[in-house]
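[stage:ingest] chain + small molecule (zinc ion)
[stage:ingest] validated
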Amino acid sequence: MQKFKTKSAKALLLSVSAFALVFGGCNAADTKTDTPKAHVEEMAQKTANHDKFTFANYDEIRVTHLDLNLDVKFDEKVLDGIATLDFKRVLQDANVLVLDSRDLLIKAVSVADKNGEWVPAAYTLGESDPALGSALTIQVGDSAKKVRIAYRTSPEAEGLQWLPPEQTAGKKHPYLFSQAQALNARTMAPLQDTPAVRITYTATLRTPPELLALMSAEQDGGPLDGEYSFNMPQPIPSYLLAIVVGDIKFKAINDHIGVYAEQYILDASAAEFEDTPLMEDSNAKLYGPYRWGRYDLIVLPPSFPFGGMENPRLSFMTPTLIAGDKSLTNVVAHELAHSWSGNLVTNSNWRDAWLNEGFTSYVENRVMEDLYGEDRAVMEQALGLEDLKRDIAGAERPELTQLKLPADIAHPDEAFSQVAYVKGQFFLMFLEERFGRDNFDAFLKEYFNHFAFQSITTEDFITYLHDELHVKNPKALTKAELHEWVYMPGLPKSAKNPQSDAFKNVSAQQADWLKGDIAAKGIKTADWSTHEWLHFLNTLPELSQAQYKELDTAFSLTGTQNAETAFAWYMQTIKGGYAPAMGELENFLMSVGRGKFIYRLYGALAESKDGKVWAQDVFSRAKSGYHPIAQRRISEGFEAK
Ligand SMILES: [Zn+2]
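[stage:predict] done
[stage:export] tokens:
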């Protein structure tokens, strides 16, 4: 059974009434909010915004710095060593430090006494919850400021994937990479695993000498010698803690941007991502300087379950982006944009995930427009909107389509639907339209500066929007409109409907082909980008077997090397039961571990006639190549269907 700390409906009501309080100030006739009732509601709001996915007592005592000193043991699939944490008291009489841990073996705990001597400390490990892990409660007394924990991780740690040599491209060396977001930093180290708490960190990793270790920090930069040290001087939330160890090479793009990858894909990756410096310039021009020193990318093995992960200074990327034509590099723009939205200004609670992902999707799209023109930006908006509408229609309950998620979400995974990304983006596009681009750009630039290196809530953003933009332009939008966007389900009517001329042309040709006016090979696809192909494939109705065959023969869709196009095609062939695609679909599922693709493919198969048994068989063979997060989510999906 899962134990969570806050109650649902009441907390939601409180968050809405706090909104009314803040934005009530938009009405000229509004009264002062400095009343006892307002104070009570503000306090209630703080409670409602407490992160329930952590055991940490961060309102009483806060970790400020983490030092890791770890052996990376590939033979046992564990990290083994010492975590030293600095902390400060929020409440002066706090004498207990509560940390998150999951599947960690705690060997010893000590605190530094007045003289800096380490003395053993009493601690308890709480009952284990399947998602949250166990509370590690340490008696720190009233003067200690440091705690030292000897521990080791579990081979089953969900945040760490240990790949044997045969699952790497080079096949000679093992590989390790981490994925801490959302609740998995606690499977790597004992810490306060909530985005509300920010820490700096240092680390020393010992590895087999032939392997390179990297972290989301200033890199060691030294020779391959089996010992690497790292420093992250900017305070980050725990979910940005990241480790990679493997037979990894580096290629520079410019003096402070480069790509890490296995040798086989290094040159192709550097070529695919060569526009990254332009993206950084564009981002900095719009939203202020890049504040993290270097920016590198690492292309991970295919089991990496995401398109990208915005680990600071070192974005993790899926190899499925290497399409050969830079058509999928909006994901680079996305991860880079997180250096402002998410990493610099962070959601303090997973209920506010749109503050990370909606802002980032908006910034990503502005950068794509700046570099590649409005047509491409509009196509990407339109594709995003198609995905959003699908997620809204398929939501398990309407509350999950609100930007501010309800207090009773069961797991942060629920916060990462297209609602946070695309609805959040379209909300900011709406604000941009209402306030004017120049005003809104200046506002956002100052927003990133004002809240730099802080973790904030939706309500903090709304207050800031009110104070800095709305009071100066009171007619730009109404309280009701804002409320609808943030606290109500679905997509408001005031959302932009992006119109792409390129997509209109695609749709017109698609209609001609469906009517039988032209043959498939008569569709003029020579100039189509991946975007146009996705629009064409995603909007197909269920076809006859002859029609699938005609398309497949004309365009060799089955087995295409572009992962996005392949995914869109297989979703259609599953819907229509087109058997000739199954062999290549199986190859795709056996070789790609990116969740965006495989969750929906397995989901569609499980719902299709005869598909579930086939899918379970493929999954049983593909599973060992998937990340533990993906294994869990797909297994849960089969159980639910
Ligand atoms: Zn993101």
